[in-house]
Hints:
The protein is α/β, with parallel strands linked by helices. The chain has 19 helices and 14 strands.
Amino acid sequence: MFRLLNIEFAASVKYHVWFGTGLIFFSLVHGGSTLFIWTITHHIEEEIWKWQRTGRVYVAGLISLVTGLLMWITSLPQIRRKKFEVFYYTHHLYIVFLVAFLFHAGDRHFYWVLPGMFLFGLDKILRIVQSRSESCILSANLFSCKAIELVVPKDPMLNYAPSSFIFLNIPLVSRFQWHPFSIISSSSVDKHSLSIMMKCEGDWTNSVYNKIEEAANCENKINNIIVRVEGPYGPASVDFLRYDNLFLVAGGIGITPFLSILKELASKNRLKSPKRVQLVFAVRTFQDLNMLLPIASIIFNPIYNLNLKLKVFVTQEKKPSNGTTTLQEFLAQSQVQSIHLGTDEDYSRFPIRGPESFRWLATLVLITVLTFLGFLIGLSHFFIPSEHKNHSGVMKLAASGAMKTAKEKVPSWVPDLIIIVSYVIAISVGGFAATILQRRRKHKEAPRMSKEVVIKPEERNFTELKPIPITEEHEIHIGERPKLEEIMSEFEKNLRGWSSVGVLVCGPESVKEAVASMCRQWPQCFGVEDLRRSRMKMNLNFHSLNFNL
């Protein structure tokens, strides 16, 4: 649905947070009001634990409310970012929440949310089917700032937009943990591989770093570290190309989406590119500047003609340990450990294929919906007879002699169970069909993949950045924080004529808030008359990119 409506995955997460918070708020108001009324009428102990034969089941409503609150609390940033696995596994209580909601609200109210349930269930099944396909790590680069660049093979037919991301699982570290990471490569440049970068700041990422390091130091070299991938997810189109100029602000590991954007801009396949690109990169230590190494050739080589200017701010150190004075010298002396783990055959054996086509998805939705309706009608007809008849098929007469319908009250949980059973069967059939269709796709594409001429990603020698005879335009500011208003004013002075500027930011919330505040305070014009009355040269268009969920 997001691909169809061209909604970014990160934006959908934001909408999910808003709607989820609203749902919990109104559920608290509803549940709290009911409990308050029962308390003042002295019926709370009698009503709260009662499982009604017909009508609303109050204890199910209490279970749904408590489960929703638990999911909401564990999704707060303080818990989600430090204990992602707690947030991830607790969120699977949505099954308990929805089943309890069905028993509490009844089947008639549940039909209002059933379409969304169908789309969610199908999406979950498709992600499970996709994640069962195995890939492998072709190579890895270990940076001194405890960051890792991982390269995995992909189908050359798989295209993704810059700033996309994937969910990654490495069974060697944990069979059940999945984590999102930004893609730093460009499908326009790297046809047969996909690269991500992770900063090792948690237990899982540190374990990945240690496993890769062990593989490099082991005498019996480990090949084919298996990984599982979901995605890529991200914008359906390259939206930033519509701007005349780009103003990029990154904090720490928030640089990763911009690495893919700059690689896309450096690609010669683009007819239209921004005229000027300003990148503001704030880090705590000099070692964190190593995250710029994947685009070092783009930064310093004039043949790409990006008109890129980089301002780096190192906030917590006063001087580099290696005595360098320029960004190029520092990156040239940076230590990177490159490790090759895969073989040429792995490009065709373990490619990431990505999401399926809309036609494929429409077929799967149709199969699932028809299965659900068939079982719902059949089971309802069998377990919920509408009227009781005698052996001759004539309606029983009431004692008074009047003809009346003798309809027995069926427990409310019976139609609820029928909905659950029909839904589970339909989703299972959809998953089975998805598995068959995916296997047919792999079998069909196997001959093409085996004959594909593999173009490996460019070999980068991180220790030999040859000096280029041009003026060093990139700046390093030590012990300072970026003054965004001054940088933007300087950027505006260098523009020729009026232009639209895409302001993209990725990093901690404090960085995003600072950039958003600057954009709100910056004077804007909305038409020809405003342009004539003002001396402004640009309109700012703010976009926030997420590097974590």
